[in-house]
Amino acid sequence: MFALLTIMSIGNILGYTTNSFEQNIAISALHLSQSAYCMTYNSNWDCITCDSSNKLDFVLEEHSELVIQGYNSDTNSLFVSFRGSVNIPNWIDNIQISKITPYTDKNIQVEKGFYKAYNYLKPDIIHNLQILTTKYNTNRLFITGHSLGASMATLLAYDILTIYTGFQLSYLITFGSPRVGNPEFVSSFTKNNKGVSYRITHYYDIVPHVPEELFGYLHLSNEIWFNEDNTHYDECNDSDSRGEDPTCSNSCSPIHCTSVSDHLHYMNITMGSDGTC
């Protein structure tokens, strides 16, 4: 029955209630995350999740990694949305566990493969943000992504907080993110972040459980965990000091968190290159 729905109408259909989790913003981010799977260099902004509140300015693709950039009128911010892997099962099988230390503080480590993918796009992303800041007269950023795209979104957000401080991180909202860095990375992110950050997970989604904690990885806090049929969510009790909430997505670890299907369905949107376009 999919027709393009407004953010508010989708919220009503799903039966969400208002609390500290900004559901409308999350749905807007979800649409941007899925729209990145639908875009090519010559695409029109007319996919099912291509909300009219967004103005598309740039589609960047390097080494098979893709990001879209433009302006979101609802938040008066510049959006950056990273596409996830076009072959998610294959990508899961090939996730590396080795870490690198690309930052001045060598205690901060991130996963090597995610950083490599992000670094292909980074120079052009920053250049385009400078152009968009002038065009739309705002330095506020709305960063999002699903799957591999979520890891790259997290790395860009961290760079904005610690390196490119002329921009303001307003929102980082990710879906089905893998773990990106070590506890020092998470602690540094938390210390520097003044914006809103949600890490949204879905039931038994496999991806939030890689790379494993036993290899020294930790998730960013503020997990929002949706149940199997996407009708209820828990706001999880996690932080960089407490670690990941064992009653949220980690409650299915390590035996049951194996679902690729759950990874491809978030808040009633089918994600991926074969998803809702």
Protein described:
Helices cover 30% and strands 22% of the residues. It is of the alpha/beta class and 277 residues long. It has one domain: 3-Layer(aba) Sandwich (Rossmann fold). The strands form three sheets. An eight-stranded mixed beta sheet has the order 1-2-3-6-7-8-9-10, sandwiched between helices. Strands 4-5 form a two-stranded antiparallel sheet. A hairpin with a 4-residue loop joins strand 2 and strand 3 (77-82).
Short descriptors:
single chain, 277 residues, alpha/beta, Rossmann fold, eight-stranded mixed sheet, two-stranded antiparallel sheet, 12 strands, 30% helix, globular, disordered N terminus
Order of helices and strands: HHEEEHEEHEHEHEEEHEE
CATH architecture: 3-Layer(aba) Sandwich
Q: How many discrete structural domains?
A: 1
CATH class: Alpha Beta
In the predicted model, the low-confidence regions spanning at least 5 consecutive residues are: 1-19
DSSP helical segment count = 7
What spatial form do the alpha-carbon principal axes imply?
Answer: globular
Rounded to the nearest angstrom, the radius of gyration is 17 Å
CATH fold name, please?
Answer: Rossmann fold
Overall SS class: alpha/beta
Average predicted confidence as pLDDT:
90
Largest sheet: 8 strands, mixed
C-alpha termini separation:
13 Å
Main β-sheet, spatial strand arrangement: 1-2-3-6-7-8-9-10
Number of strands: 12
Q: Say what oligomer this is.
A: single chain
Protein topology:
Elements: H1 7-14, H2 23-38, E1 54-62, E2 65-72, E3 77-82, H3 88-93, E4 99-100, E5 110-111, H4 112-136, E6 140-146, H5 148-162, E7 168-175, H6 183-192, E8 196-202, E9 223-226, E10 233-235, H7 260-263, E11 265-266, E12 269-270
Parallel strand pairs: 3-6, 6-7, 7-8, 8-9
Antiparallel strand pairs: 1-2, 2-3, 4-5, 9-10, 11-12
Helix pairs in contact: 1-2, 4-5
